């Protein structure tokens, strides 16, 4: 399923960029809303890359063209793919990150 692909991609991405850190996964279900959080204490996402990812998250349709900086060590492509897949199944994706502090991704969906 698309949800399985999204979760697998997030976990693989977290493991890829986390060397000596921690990855945590939590789940909550409150009033017909599911929330899955995947957080890591890795290097985080550069603010310029996070800004491009958030542009994709806020767009109603595919806008990834031209948003990827191929000169960057982390282009954010995995998160962009997650954002676009999420739109197919009405999945809300929220990404927060700080350099050298890690990244947190929250997935929300309704029953």
Compact description:
This protein is α+β, with helices and mostly antiparallel strands and 111 residues long.
Write up this protein:
Mean pLDDT is 82; it is low at 66-73. The chain is an alpha+beta fold. The protein has three helices and four strands. A hairpin with a 3-residue loop joins strand 3 and strand 4 (102-110).
List keywords for this structure.
alpha+beta; 111 residues; 4 strands; 29% strand; single chain; 3 helices
Strand content: 25-35%
For the secondary structure, the number of strands is: 4
Helix content: 25-40%
Order of helices and strands: HEEHHEE
Oligomer: single chain
Q: What is the count of DSSP helices, taking H or I runs of 4+ residues?
A: 3
User: Please, what is the average pLDDT?
Assistant: 82
Strand order, main sheet: write it out. Answer: 1-2-4-3
Distance between the termini: 16 Å
Structural class: alpha+beta
Q: Uncertain segments of ≥5 residues (pLDDT<50)?
A: 66-73
Choose one word for the global shape.
globular
Rounded to an integer, what's the Rg over CA atoms? 14 Å
Q: Major sheet, described briefly? A: 4 strands, antiparallel
Spell out the blueprint of helices and strands.
Elements: H1 2-17, E1 23-30, E2 33-40, H2 47-58, H3 77-88, E3 92-98, E4 102-110
Antiparallel strand pairs: 1-2, 2-4, 3-4
């Amino acid at each position: 399923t698309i949800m399985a692909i999204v979760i697998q991609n997030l976990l693989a991405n977290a493991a890829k960029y986390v060397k000596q850190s921690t990855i945590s996964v939590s789940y909550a279900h409150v009033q017909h809303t599911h929330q899955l959080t995947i957080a890591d204490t890795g290097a985080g996402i550069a603010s310029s890359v996070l800004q491009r990812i958030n542009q994709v998250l806020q767009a109603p349709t595919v806008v990834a063209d031209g948003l990827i900086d191929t000169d960057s060590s982390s282009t954010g492509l995995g998160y962009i793919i997650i954002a676009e897949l999420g739109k197919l199944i009405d999945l809300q994706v929220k990404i927060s990150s700080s350099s050298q502090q890690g990244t947190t991704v929250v997935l929300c969906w309704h029953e």
